[in-house]
Amino acid sequence: MKIALDPTPFHHGHGLLEFPRVVADLGYKYMQMTPHADFIPFFNHPKADDELVGKLKAACKDAGIEIASVLPVLRWSGPDEDAREAAVRYWKRAIQITVDLGVSTMNTEFSGRPEKAEESERAFYRSMEELLPIIEREGIDVLIDPHPDDFVEEGLAAIRMIRGLNSKNVGLVYVASHSFHMKNEPLEIMRAAGDKLRLVHVADTMNHHASHGLRYITNPPGNPVRVHQHLKIGDGDVNWDEFFGGLKEIGFLDREDTVMVSSVFAEDDNAAEVSRYQLETMMQRVEKASL
Q1: HSE on the CB side for 28, CA within 13 Å?
Q2: Cβ(6)–Cβ(263) under 8 Å?
Q3: Cβ(75)–Cβ(87) below 8 Å
Q4: Are the C-beta atoms of 180 and 135 separated by less than 8 Å?
Q5: Among candidates 152, 153, 158, which has minimal Cα distance to 171?
Q6: Of the candidates 156, 43, 179, the residue with the CA atom closest to the CA atom of residue 109
Q7: pLDDT by residue for the chain (291 residues), tens digit each?
Q8: Contact 100, 57 (CB under 8 A)
């Protein structure tokens, strides 16, 4: 298993090519590349040309770290056909960038719209008809997160959607801070996913269902909002014994093709301290679960 850092908290104080050194200085051996204006921005065409990709690859080598995964977020399941077609084009370039970086894992979100779930499902499978042959040819693993406000938000529903693709190259992302949006219990999802679960994001969050649903109040009542945080381990309500124990049970912690990512986005003011805390705590939890 690779333990990686998502450098999103450092986007505002460092340039793209500085990320590898930042990650190394914080004690990590791996980095997850998430959306960035100079790399693969949210919802739009990748902005990295071959020269920049080469420089990023060299910066990783100089810093002594590796990129564990590349994360694009594109509208490949959007019910708007023009946006969907564009997203497929963007995906093709993102895949090429990933291959050129020497990375074999990509993770993403289902996207689409929950209020247009049927239309979004059609769009998702239509996109995958075109992308899956490329993904399989390049030997890339594409792992998908049922993100809050996507057309698939529930854990078991996400597994069914992935299973419908009938490809060993597609699997599941479990984001701990989305636990209270996924309907199903974490251990139930992990057991059902088995070896399809190959990447997890480690961040804490509050249970928005607590206090009879009144922990968070929006006005007017009934707003279709999704609330969660990306806090450091221990600052929320995630059951970490269950989380790490479940990963041990399904063999996630012992595999070479799995990735565990620290993805804390709520602590920018002390991001370096929190990143070190996350690494130490994840390693301790992994060791405890493995006893």
Answers
A1: 33
A2: yes
A3: yes
A4: no
A5: 158
A6: 43
A7: 999 999 999 998 899 999 999 999 999 999 999 999 999 999 999 999 999 999 999 999 999 999 999 999 999 998 999 999 999 999 999 999 999 999 999 999 999 999 999 999 999 999 999 999 999 999 999 999 999 999 999 999 999 999 999 999 999 999 999 999 899 999 999 999 999 999 999 999 998 778 877 787 788 877 888 888 899 999 999 999 999 999 999 999 999 999 999 999 988 889 999 999 999 999 999 999 998
A8: yes
Burial 11-47 (b: 16+ CB within 10 A, else e): beeeebbebbbbbbebebbbbbbbbbeebbbebeebe
In this prediction, residue 210 carries a pLDDT of 80
* Class of residue 186 by CB neighbours under 10 A (exposed 0-12, middle 13-18, buried 19+): buried
Global confidence as pTM: 0.95
Burial class (CB in 10 A: 0-12, 13-18, 19+), 87: buried
CA distances from 172 to 45, 144, 257 (A): 24, 5, 13
Residues 6+ apart with CB under 8 A from 254: 1, 248
Q: How many CB atoms lie within 10 A of CB 1?
A: 19
Tokens 């007017």 sit on residue: 220
Question: Token pair for residue 225?
Answer: 């909002």
> What CA–CA distances, in Å, run from 247 to 109, 140, 149, 243, 289?
21, 22, 25, 6, 9
Which residue type sits at 193? A
Determine the Cα–Cα distance for residues 249 and 169; give it in Å rounded to an integer. 22
Q: Which residues of 252-286 are buried (b: 16+ CB within 10 A; e: fewer)?
A: bbeeeebbbbbbbebbeeebeebbbbbbebbeebb
CB 120 within 8 A of CB 132: no
